[in-house]
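dumping these here so i dont lose them again. two proteins, back to back, each one seq then structure tokens. dont judge the mess
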Amino acid sequence: MGEVAQLANVSPSTVSLYLRRPGEVSPRRADKIQAAIDRLGYLPNTMAGGLASSRSNVIGVLVPTITNSFFSETLETLERHLRSAGYQLLIGNTEFDDSREEELIRSILSWNPAGLVLTGFLHNRKSLSLLAHNDTPIVEMWDYGQPGLDMVVGFSHHSCGRLVAEHMLRQGRRRMAFVSTNFQRDVRAGDRYHGFRDTVEAAGGTVELRELSGRSHAEETGRLTQTLLQEHPEIEAIACSNDMVALGVMMECQRQHWAIPDRVALAGFGNLDFTTSTVPPLTTIEPPRREIGQHTARMLLSRLKGELPESDRRLDLGVRLVERQSV
């Protein structure tokens, strides 16, 4: 706090007042104090003063959504393993928004957590600055292929796209499309698209890309699918960024009486529960949802005990192509 006060050219008591009751500090001084806080990466500790130098038993976990089973299964497994070791989860939902992630990181770090679990590698500049000024152990999960901030547990989304493309190519498909959630909202969907496109084009095929405006909305997916196949009747196969998008495509194909896989092959990502019950059953990629939670917990606990060497801080769990009758 003293460094913030010195940089902002105010007294420590003014900084303290700003942190507790910002409305009671003049706008000019408030702006100077906040600028100093941002520059220094300062985090007020919400723990009691006598505990400020020790770690809490809290582990923060940030996921982009809690409404699908992808992350809920990971969270359930992670919570079970960490609870048995005496830790509690503090879960935040970023809603695929890097500014929201920054806000949550700032809040969780103020509790002096024992560890922090983030989803993926993409964080904004302020988040990276906060994390660089903090020695909290960090695991980035649900992705692989970049160095990471500290520890990494996940899989390559580029490889997911490659596996689907290779499977469709083996079935003789060459003219394809990729239907996806918005890449600005879900960057990992973009990685899957690039893996798919690169593989198809390397084999001499073509890929048409269509992005939804936001989430996997069945009505919008249906309209997009209808337009896509009417404008490009040559398309023989469609890969989707996730199973919910694939379900929307399948429903539209059924409305238009376009047979799957005879008229168009179809594949998703996620291996959600309903994929065995669609007609036909959906070909998809199965990510290691529970394994990510298990190994993230193991890695964090080993690190907190000082038992995790640098060479063991990155783990690629891979994925499985689930071949069904839609391709």
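---- next one ----
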Amino acid sequence: MDFFKRILAEVTPSRKEYLAMGRVAAKILVTVHNVLDELQINAKPEIHGSYSKDTWLSGEGDIDLFILFPLETSLRKLQEQGLFVAEKVAAKLKCRVKRRYASHPYLELYVDKIKVDIVPGYYVKSNSEVKTPVDRTRLHTLYVLRNLRKERRGHVRLLKKFLKSLRIYGAEIRIQGFSGYLTELLIIKYGSFLNTLKAMSEWKPYNIFISLGEAIPQRRFSEPLVFIDPVDPRRNVAAAVSEENLWKVIAAARAFIENPRECFFKVKHVAKEETTTLLRNREAYL
């Protein structure tokens, strides 16, 4: 499919983007290191997220920097010191800042027009050490780096773009879609963008249990799509995906396989007819 090359060229960051992101990543890491040394705080800064895994999309680069504290640190101390360090970093770099909230507060900075999230968390080496939800991010990064081949990063980018065109990319409550980590795991599982869509086209909500070799836990998950987290078998990576959005991707995958077209990668394209038909007749597929 010739248009794959065009889409892949569009979603793959340019050399200029890589250089800009690299400069900001280096600047923020050095600044955080310096602040931690000045304040004599025992913590380690690490960059995670799609930038660290090289699965980010052109024009959408951002940096997730985690300030990771020893496990013996109290949660209150972690939050207070993490935010204090982030505020000091923002002041040194003279950049605007916003306070955000996930499992606990973090700061959002803009450094040379690139968004940087500074998030406090615990330094963990295994799932048994996880204390807060953000702690798993480090484990997720390490897993993807070990298991996603370099040549398959483009397939992750194609899948992300496909899901964005359906407006179901993102695990936030307002979207209830596919997270970046879930898209990476899907490519690790199925090997390519097309193979992933073929698998999706055969999905039946509430009867989809996917793993990467881990045994499915005895307790049943209640979500319409289940993908066992390879770093924590008790967790469903796809828990955020709503039933409606699951039907959307099934319909779009079937439509694409039947008639592959470039329009499936355009933001305003949604396979409305196919989705409506499947939603109306969903019982037939269960």
